[in-house]
Amino acid sequence: MDSHIHVKQEMSSPVIDPILRIVKISEEDKQTVALVHNAPIVSSYNDRIRPLLDTIDRLRHLKIMQEGIQLPTIVVVGDQSSGKSSVLESLAGISLPRGQGICTRVPLIMRLQNHSNSKPDLSLEFNGKVVPTDEENIADAISLATEEIAGKGKGISNSLLTLVVKKKGVPDLTMVDLPGITRVPVHGQPEDIYEQISKIIMEFITPEESIILNVLSASVDFSTCESIRMSQRVDKTGQRTLAVVTKADKSPEGLLEKVTADDVNIGLGYVCVRNRIGDESYEEAREEEARLFETHPQLSKINKSIVGIPVLAQRLVKIQATIIVKCLPEIARKINDKLSANLDELNKLPKNLTSVAEAMTTFMHILGNAKESLRKILVQGEFDEYPDVLEMHGTARLAEMLNMYSEELLSEKLAENKENFLLEEIKILEETKSIGLPNFLPKSAFLTLLQKKVNMISAKPFDIVEKIWNYIENVVISVLLRHSDNYPQLMSCTRRAAQNLIDKKMQQSIDWVNDMVEMEKLTDYTCNPEYTSSWNKFMSHQDEFMKCINSQHPSVIRIDGFGDVNVVHLFSLKCVVQEAFDVKMRMTAYWDIVMKRMVDNMALHLLFSIQNLVKKEMQMEIINELVGPKGNGLERMLEESPSISEKRNKLKKSINLLKESKDVVANIMDRVVTNFD
Ligand code: GDP
Ligand code: MG
């Protein structure tokens, strides 16, 4: 359970947490109540808390929050005119701008510090500067600073303004005063003022490290307060919400009942106060407040442990200490995590190269890595670098494309027209017949038929070659770019080299396909015995086929490898049919061999060509492009790219900040252990 939740059990009950343990609570309660004015609110207790608060203030000043590390903060929220500024004023013992409309237009960090000098010391910190001021001029100084930060007019801003109040007797407290919540824009305010303000407020109260000081006017129904709704959104149980009820003097009726009923779930409890009115001095205001709660018929019934500004101060100081002690270990851990993550990232950034030799080494290293990646992807079939990117599983994709090519080629014969069985062969035979013996198949008939068939499929090998090289180009470029992504200067030239080389390789493959196609057309040859055996198999049906043709029955006949074939159109042609049947069966047996040869050769050719690319050509091409006669790539590598140097500077800055913060925290953690345990 969070220790600060228990603070609701008013001050008389002993509170168990590392800091509060050393405090004599009951002693202090008496002291607190006795503190009416002038006498310091603070005690030796605060001196122990001071270093803790200083630590958090240091961290805030270092802007550790920019690193996404939240700091424990007391955030003051309240509806407009609920009395926020008045409460802060009472705590600080100074006058803050008050008036119509929103006076607070930027988050105001109020850092109250007790100091021994009886002369107060006030200053404003904003936009990186420190502007000294004094009690008379503080209101104007804040207005001026607000104008400088948020512009003139009534707009609001979320950049910070810090007011440091060093004054004798003030509690050591740091709080953030936020713009008051307003539903209806007053004249001159932007239309979306409500959205703007609630965004800033939510930003401050959402972190678990924030304590919400909810300022409520005694004159309103708490459950209708906008600020209650907001804090309930981020702190449902109210465990980090404390309520301050102002204007007790104006609406004393039923106040006791309201704070006892606790209809709005305030986990840290209520404190009722009466702020400075009109031209009263701070001291007069405290006297009046004390008198009011002492003598007023209704207000005097409220337990003294929950009334008055001094009690509020005391409560806040304790809550603050508790939350800081609670948060410090986590802050230390976050700083460490962030620091090591940033150091890691910095180490991973490419080195800033200072000589051509260094650039050469780096370049060769990149090249070596890229070559190894390509070898894995395109040759070995190892995909550890891209486990989930199917596109980069090169060997598998290549096999897929080749399979498709082979299926397309082999399915070609199925497309033959079954209605015109043998007609083509007969036509060619008639055109190639010469004066000579019958039953003597002319070679030219077969060749003519072969050439026709090869022409019909010849686009396919060209297509596959193009498809595969386009795929390889994508893979190669993406691998090269990945390996040179720290050196954008290298990218354009490696990309160019890759494109040039792939263009060349594709042209070589096209030339090779051309030769292959021409060779197939030139002559018919195979040493594969499968040819003879399948031709024999086909021819074993010839007798049966001719019997059917001669007897002109039946009109449809089943032929192995061709299925049911209509033969009526052949009945009148008899003599040439037998030869045509023979030609067709030879062609069928041979075409199978040709297709398989084309697939096998294509696969071997591509594998050979890709291996050469990966193993030597790629490297040579890139080196030539980068350091060849036209290249000045190595010189260009010496200039660090702006994006990298920007990243490096940002990381270095953040690392310095985190290191400094780490020291600050380490320092206090040692003291927490020795002092507060
Ligand atoms: P803010 O808008 O929440 O900052 O509210 P202010 O602090 O500016 O207060 C709004 C008005 O309420 C001012 O006129 C204050 O003088 C007045 N006010 C604040 N607190 C008290 C109080 O405890 N008693 C009385 N009578 N008036 C108060
Ligand atoms: Mg205000």
From TrEMBL:
Domain named Dynamin-type G: residues: 68-329
Record keyword Nucleotide-binding present: yes
Cited PROSITE patterns: G_DYNAMIN_2 (PS51718), GED (PS51388)
Domain GED: 580-673
Any matching Pfam family: Dynamin_M
InterPro entries named among the record's database cross-references: Dynamin, Dynamin_GTPase, Dynamin_N, Dynamin_stalk, G_DYNAMIN_dom, GED, GED_dom, P-loop_NTPase
Name of this chain's protein: Dynamin-related protein 4C-like
Protein's organism: Rehmannia glutinosa (Chinese foxglove)
